[in-house]
Amino acid sequence: MFLNLSTLALVLCVVGILLMRLEFPAVAGPVYASGAQERWGVKLLIPLLVIAGLGLPFFLEEDYGSLLCSTVPSTDPHAIVVIALGAAAGVGISAVIHRRTAVPYAVIGALFGYRFMAEGSLNWPQAGGMVMGWLLAPVLCFVLTFLLVKMLYWYASRPGRHLAVVDQRLLAGCVLASLLLVASATWNLGQLATVFPRVMLGNGTVPAGVALGVMALLFLFRAQPSLEDDTDFGPGSALAVMLAMSASFVLFSWSGLQKVGLMPTPLSASALLVAGLVGVSVAQRNAVISGEDILKSSAASLSAPVLGFLITYCLSMVLSTLILVGIIAVAAAFILYVRAQRADARRTEMLRSREEQLYSTQKSLSALEVRVETNEKDLMNKLENKRKELVDFAVGVSDQKAFMEKVYTQLAHVRELPDGPQKEEGLDEVLNQLRERMYFTREMNDFYARTEILHRDFNTRLKEAYPSLTESERKLANLLRQGFSSKYIASLMNITPKSVEISRYRLRTKLGLKRSDNLVKYIKTI
Questions:
Q1: pLDDT, tens digit, for every residue of 163-181?
Q2: pTM surpassing 0.70?
Q3: CATH value of 439-526 in 3.30.750.24, 1.10.10.10, 3.40.630.30, 1.20.120.450
């Protein structure tokens, strides 16, 4: 009895681990993509649904497994081990093709392999019904996903639909759909436990303890979502895929399918997920899964039952335990070799990625150094300009002081002269000097020269766009661009405010502006 319990517990663990590592990521993928996993209710209910879905079918009175294989000896642990090893080997080899393989198909293929060895024949209608179900289920999932995506897009795009309200309703639908998907998937996949003889466990609390222990062990191997990070997968798409997968799981768990020539059978969640992604791609006209990924995952799913059948058949025909161990060792070595090659390829890719990142970082640093050097030169030029301005200011103050001293001396000399023509000539000379000084000719020329330097690009564009402008009109445009009012412009150009308004009007005419156009704003756009 202890041998039977140990054997069955080991087999259930092997099959359960394969399910958790290879099938449940396909269930978790759309759940995580939809955002439903962030809800605490979903986090708490999913483990309970998984345990119930995988454990309850084992204790039901109706033996679903008898539909799959009724020839497995109920008291022969060797047969159970051979079937489990054949299924595990088939899954391992098919996973080399693609990580999205089909664990349920490998297990059923192993059962039929043992049955073919024991009886020398197969129940072809039963096998054909299951294979037909494996082919029709992805097609059904594809069609349902396509229709649901179209329907959800139509709903979201109707007039008057607020985007926030639509997203909130989609998220609520995703929460319910995620629970439905987990429940239907684990119920469908949980039927695999019933293909093993339940009589080995006896009755009472022993089966419950073994089953709960197996479930607890399985949750040490938590599934990671089987979707790439860059997959274009919104809440609406996730909801459509989850509902389509749930409907497929429920339909192919229904015993009434035998009336139409099909068989209720465990389905591959990975195959359904790929079909759902294809449905989303067609509906959105945007590929969310590559063609290579579709071909490889399909090849892995289709090869899993064939490999399970052949390996189990060969293992069940082996007479020597040593040969059996050798075959298992070779298969394990092959799988380990392939995994090592993949690990080396990943390390090589990681090193290449790091080298590219290092090169990109060095390139960015070089660009930053050039930018810093350029900014430093600009800063030095600005400091030099400021220094020149201070020097010019000091020179201007000195000139003004010298001029004022000169005028003061001349006025003092004129005041001492007696009234007469000589005194009048002296006063006229002083007044002429002051009038000439009031025009600030030298300062204004220096001001315009600095303006030409600071706004070189503007002046160049102004000359190219409007070559007919006079020098005075270009100076007026420069002053307007710098924000001077008409009053200050009149003072700087030594003309009256009325003349400034006339000059502005002539400038507007030459620039081709309408009466409603703002002259200053237009000049700033040049």
A1: 667 778 888 888 899 899 9
A2: no
A3: 1.10.10.10
